[in-house]
Design brief:
Elements lengths: L20 E4 L9 H19 L3 H14 L4 H4 L1 H8 L3 H7 L10 H10 L3 E6 L3 H10 L8 E4 H4 L6 H10 L7 E5 L2 H10 L3 E5 L16 E2 L7
Parallel strand pairs: 1-2, 1-4, 2-3, 4-5, 5-6
Helix pairs in contact: 1-2
The protein binds magnesium ion.
The site of magnesium ion (MG) has 7 residues, from loops.
């Protein structure tokens, strides 16, 4: 399930009249993932190095190891877990670089397009409720969603099969009438395993990195391609 930088192989093939519900990921899909990458890969290591009086390279190695331990789990997204684990005020640090939180190109237009087409729009995110709070202080997109579902509330990460079973208990979507957009292949695969038929991969989640097209899912650079 590796993404590739080759030209894209899967054009998206659904028509809007088949879709009544749209599930949207947040980070890397609606918002620029550069903020999250910079936060965990640069800003937290800097603060951690300073606090523990160690070199930046040592901080990065330690943190990478610590991050890996909880990859694809709820802990990874839990700001309270990280505040305890690293002995840092993670929500405050998130706010300290809040100026980097940005909506990806064409997102607002796409959300308005969906509204015009009378689709139900839901946010489906692994982001912790405290992260959502920080992000929605900066970007005005929350008003577009009929409801928001965070993994913490659902009780499983989107990569885990239980997530989809539990989501379905609260949100009665139809598998073949729902479009799901995400930038993480593992998450899209988990949705596919559950039986969602219409899946779209975001090939350019970060404004600062080159695009990486998926080999396994229809992969788009911009929402313009869906309008
Ligand atoms: Mg994402």
């Amino acid at each position: 399930m590796q993404a590739t930088e080759l030209v894209r192989q899967n054009p998206s093939s659904f028509s809007w009249h088949e879709i009544d519900t749209v599930l949207l990921d947040l980070d890397g899909t609606l918002l620029d993932k550069y903020y999250d990458d910079f936060f965990w890969e640069t800003f937290v290591p800097e603060v951690f190095a300073k606090k523990n009086r160690i070199e930046m390279s040592a901080a990065k190695t330690t943190l990478l190891h610590t991050y890996k331990k909880v990859e694809d789990t709820l802990e990874w997204t839990d700001l309270d877990y990280w505040s305890n684990e690293l002995d840092l005020n993670i929500p405050q640090l998130k706010r300290d670089i809040g100026h980097l939180i940005a909506v990806r190109p064409q997102v607002t237009e796409f959300l308005e397009y969906l509204k015009e087409k009378e689709k139900k729009i839901y946010l489906v995110t692994n982001a912790h409720p405290k992260t959502l709070e920080v992000k929605f202080e900066r970007v005005d997109i929350a008003k577009h969603f009929t409801a928001m579902f965070s993994s913490k509330e659902v009780g499983a990460a989107k990569e885990q099969p239980e997530f989809w079973n539990r989501l379905k208990e609260t949100l009665p979507f139809t598998r073949d009438k729902t479009l799901f957009v995400d930038d993480t292949e593992k998450v899209l695969q988990s949705a596919r395993d559950y039986g969602l038929c219409h899946l779209i991969h975001i090939a350019k989640p970060s404004s600062k990195l080159p695009p990486t097209f998926s080999r396994n899912f229809p992969s788009i650079l911009s929402f313009e391609e869906l309008m």
